[in-house]
C-alpha cells in the first residue's frame, strides 16, 4: 500500500503468519539434500516458487534457474509485504527492505564498472526494495557512475554516493562507492525509530536494529583485523549500535584478543560465546558469521513473539525468508559442486 | 673417412691437437652435464613440491569458491569479482644456472588488502574474503610453479643438448680422429719402411755396382800381369 494511512500490524502480521507456514521446514531441507538440482527445481515448482520457476524456466536451467527463481520469489514475497503494509509499518518495512535497493545500486555500479551487458545486470537485480521498475531500468541502462549518482538524487543513497564519487574518481576503485551505499542503508535504518530504552514494541525493534548494526561492526572489525589492512576501522564504523564507539573500534581492532574479550563482556557475550570459541580455534570468520546470522534470526524471532503487534514479526519473517532462500541455494549449489550433504547441512540456518 | 685424410705429418699433428682439444671439451661437457643433472634433480624436487602445492591450493580455492557460491549465491560472488578490474602484474627477469638462462618471475599486486579488493567491506562477508585469499595463494603458487617448471624445462633441454654433444664427442668425433691418427701413423710408418727398403735397395745396388767395377778392375789387372812375362 503506502506510507499514508494508519499502521496496520494486525492485518499484516496475520498474513505474515500465514506466509510463515509456507516456508520450507527441516523436513523439506532433508528431502532437498537428497535431490539433484533438477529435482530441487521440480520440488520448488510445487511451492511458493511455482511462478518464478515457470516464468524463468525458458531462460535458465539447473542451479542458475534455482538461484534466479529464489531471488524472484524473494522479491515477490517482499513486494507483497509492502503492498499489505500501511502508514508507519510500511515505512519501517520499506526502510528495512532498502537493503535490496542497496544491492541493486551496487549491482548497477559494478555493471558499469566492469562493462557488463545491461541484460546480465538486469538478471542479477533483486526487485524487492522500494525502487520502482522504471528507476531500476534506468539504473541498468546507465552508462556511467555519474549517471547512476544523478539518478539516485533524492534517495537515501544520493548524497553519500555523490560524496564517494569524488574518491572513486581519484582512486578508480569501487570500494568507496560500495561502502557509501551500505552505510547509507544502515544509517537510515533508525530513522523514525524512537528509542531503544524501555520495553515496548518500538524499543524491541530498536534493540534488534542495534544488534544487527553491532554484529555488522563486529564482523567488519574482525575482518579488518584478520586481513591486516592498514585502514582505520572507524572509517567503516556504522552509527547506531551500542557495542562500540568509533574510537573503541579503532583501538580494539588492533588487538583481536581484546576485541573478542570486549564482545564476550557485552550483552551479546552469551549468544556469541560458542562462535567466538570456534573462531579462536579455526582462525576463520566463516563459522563466526554463520553463528551471527543464526543469532540475528533468533533475536528477531524472539522480538516477534514478544511483540506480535509491531514490525518485529514482519522483520522476523523477512529474515526467515532470506534464510530459506540462502538454504535452498546452498543445497542446490552445494549438491552441484559435489559437497558432502552433511557439510551442506552444517551450513544451513534452520529455525 | 680416414681415406680422405692425407697421411702427412702436418695432418697428424693437427689431428693430435684436435684430439687433445676434443678430450678436454669432452671432460668439460661431461662435468657440465653432471652438474646440470644435479641442479636439475634439485629443481625437480622443488617442482614436485610446488606442483603438489598448486594442486592443494587449487583444491582449497575451488572448495572455498563452491562454498561461497552456495552460501552467498553466484550473483554475489560474481558481483564481488566484477568489482575489481586491476590484474596482478608480472615481470620477468633472467638468471643463469650453469650457463642456462632461466626466467625469474616476479609478481606484484597479487595479494591485496581488504580495502583494495574493489568490493565494499560493509556489504560483503568473510566467506568472500577467504575465497579471495585462497585464490591469491593459488596465483602465487602458479607463478612460482611457472618459474620453476620453465627453469626445469630449459635445464632439461640443456642437459639433452650437452648429452648429445658429449656422445657426439665420445662416440663419433674422438673415434674418427683416433682412426685418422692411426691411419696416418700407419701410413707414415709404411712410408718410412718403404724409404728404408728403398735406401737399402739403392745401397745394395750401389755396392753391387762397386763390386762389379772392382771385379772388372781386378780382371784387367790380372790380364796385364799375365802378358808381361812373355815379353821377358
TrEMBL record, chain A:
Keywords: ATP synthesis, Cell membrane, Hydrogen ion transport, Ion transport, Membrane, Transport. GO terms for biological process: proton motive force-driven plasma membrane ATP synthesis. The keyword Iron does not apply. GO terms for cellular component: plasma membrane; proton-transporting V-type ATPase, V0 domain. It is a peripheral membrane protein. The keyword Cell membrane applies. GO terms for molecular function: ATP binding; proton-transporting ATP synthase activity, rotational mechanism; proton-transporting ATPase activity, rotational mechanism. It is found in: Cell membrane. Component of the A-type ATP synthase that produces ATP from ADP in the presence of a proton gradient across the membrane. Belongs to the V-ATPase V0D/AC39 subunit family. Has multiple subunits with at least A(3), B(3), C, D, E, F, H, I and proteolipid K(x). This is A-type ATP synthase subunit C. It comes from Halolamina pelagica.
TrEMBL record, chain B:
Residues 208-220 have a biased composition (Acidic residues). GO terms for biological process: proton motive force-driven plasma membrane ATP synthesis. It is found in: Cell membrane. GO terms for cellular component: plasma membrane. InterPro entries: V_ATPase_D. It is a peripheral membrane protein. Residues 203-232 are annotated as: Disordered. It holds the Pfam family ATP-synt_D. Component of the A-type ATP synthase that produces ATP from ADP in the presence of a proton gradient across the membrane. PANTHER family: V-TYPE ATP SYNTHASE SUBUNIT D (PTHR11671). This is A-type ATP synthase subunit D.
Amino acid at each position: 500500500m503506502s506510507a499514508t494511512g494508519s499502521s496496520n500490524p494486525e492485518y499484516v502480521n496475520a498474513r505474515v503468519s500465514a506466509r510463515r507456514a509456507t516456508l520450507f521446514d527441516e523436513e523439506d531441507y532433508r528431502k532437498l539434500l537428497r535431490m539433484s538440482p533438477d529435482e530441487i527445481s521440480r520440488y520448488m515448482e510445487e511451492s511458493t516458487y511455482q511462478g518464478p520457476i515457470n516464468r524463468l524456466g525458458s531462460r535458465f536451467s539447473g542451479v542458475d534457474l534455482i538461484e534466479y527463481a529464489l531471488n524472484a520469489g524473494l522479491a515477490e514475497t517482499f513486494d507483497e509485504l509492502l503492498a499489505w503494509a500501511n502508514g508507519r509499518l510500511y515505512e519501517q518495512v520499506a526502510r528495512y527492505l532498502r537493503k535490496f535497493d542497496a544491492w541493486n545500486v551496487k549491482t548497477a555500479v559494478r555493471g558499469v564498472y566492469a562493462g557488463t551487458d545491461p541484460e546480465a545486470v538486469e538478471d542479477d537485480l533483486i526487485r524487492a526494495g522500494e525502487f520502482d521498475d522504471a528507476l531500476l531500468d534506468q539504473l541498468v541502462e546507465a552508462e556511467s557512475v555519474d549517471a547512476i549518482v544523478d539518478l539516485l538524487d533524492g534517495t537515501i543513497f544520493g548524497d553519500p554516493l555523490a560524496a564517494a564519487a569524488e574518491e572513486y574518481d581519484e582512486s578508480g576503485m569501487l570500494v568507496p562507492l560500495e561502502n557509501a551505499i551500505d552505510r547509507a542503508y544502515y544509517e537510515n535504518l533508525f530513522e523514525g525509530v524512537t528509542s531503544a530504552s524501555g520495553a515496548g514494541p518500538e524499543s524491541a525493534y530498536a534493540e534488534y536494529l542495534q544488534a544487527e548494526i553491532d554484529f555488522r561492526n563486529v564482523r567488519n572489525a574482525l575482518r579488518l583485523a584478520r586481513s591486516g589492512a592498514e585502514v582505520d576501522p572507524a572509517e567503516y564504523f556504522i552509527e547506531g549500535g551500542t557495542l562500540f564507539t568509533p574510537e573503541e573500534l579503532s583501538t580494539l581492532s588492533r588487538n583481536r584478543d581484546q576485541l573478542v574479550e570486549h564482545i564476550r563482556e557485552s550483552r551479546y557475550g552469551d549468544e556469541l560465546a560458542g562462535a567466538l570459541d570456534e573462531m579462536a580455534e579455526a582462525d576463520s570468520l566463516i563459522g563466526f558469521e554463520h553463528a551471527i546470522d543464526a543469532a540475528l534470526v533468533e533475536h528477531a524471532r524472539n522480538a516477534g513473539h514478544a511483540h506480535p503487534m509491531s514490525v518485529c514479526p514482519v522483520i522476523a519473517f523477512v529474515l526467515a525468508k532470506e534464510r530459506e532462500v540462502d538454504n535452498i541455494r546452498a543445497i542446490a549449489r552445494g549438491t552441484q559442486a559435489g559437497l558432502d550433504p552433511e557439510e551442506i547441512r552444517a551450513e544451513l540456518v534452520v529455525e | 673417412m680416414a681415406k680422405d685424410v692425407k697421411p702427412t705429418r702436418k695432418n697428424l699433428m693437427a689431428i693430435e691437437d684436435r684430439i687433445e682439444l676434443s678430450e678436454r671439451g669432452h671432460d668439460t661437457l661431461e662435468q657440465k652435464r653432471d652438474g646440470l643433472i644435479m641442479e636439475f634433480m634439485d629443481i625437480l624436487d622443488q617442482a614436485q613440491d610446488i606442483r603438489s602445492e598448486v594442486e592443494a591450493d587449487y583444491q582449497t580455492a575451488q572448495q572455498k569458491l563452491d562454498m561461497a557460491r552456495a552460501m552467498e549465491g553466484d550473483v554475489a560472488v560474481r558481483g564481488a569479482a566484477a568489482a575489481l578490474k586491476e590484474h596482478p602484474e608480472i615481470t620477468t627477469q633472467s638468471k643463469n644456472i650453469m650457463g642456462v638462462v632461466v626466467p625469474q618471475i616476479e609478481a606484484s599486486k597479487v595479494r591485496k588488502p581488504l580495502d583494495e579488493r574493489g568490493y565494499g567491506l560493509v556489504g560483503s562477508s568473510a566467506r568472500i574474503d577467504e575465497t579471495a585469499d585462497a585464490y591469491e595463494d593459488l596465483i602465487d603458487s602458479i607463478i612460482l610453479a611457472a618459474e620453476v617448471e620453465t627453469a626445469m624445462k630449459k635445464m632439461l633441454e640443456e642437459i639433452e643438448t650437452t648429452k648429445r654433444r658429449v656422445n657426439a664427442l665420445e662416440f663419433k668425433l674422438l673415434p674418427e680422429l683416433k682412426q685418422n691418427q692411426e691411419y696416418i701413423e700407419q701410413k707414415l710408418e709404411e712410408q718410412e719402411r718403404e724409404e728404408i727398403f728403398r735406401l737399402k735397395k739403392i745401397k745394395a745396388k750401389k755396392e753391387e755396382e762397386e763390386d762389379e767395377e772392382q771385379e772388372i778392375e781386378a780382371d784387367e789387372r790380372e790380364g796385364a800381369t799375365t802378358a808381361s812375362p812373355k815379353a821377358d
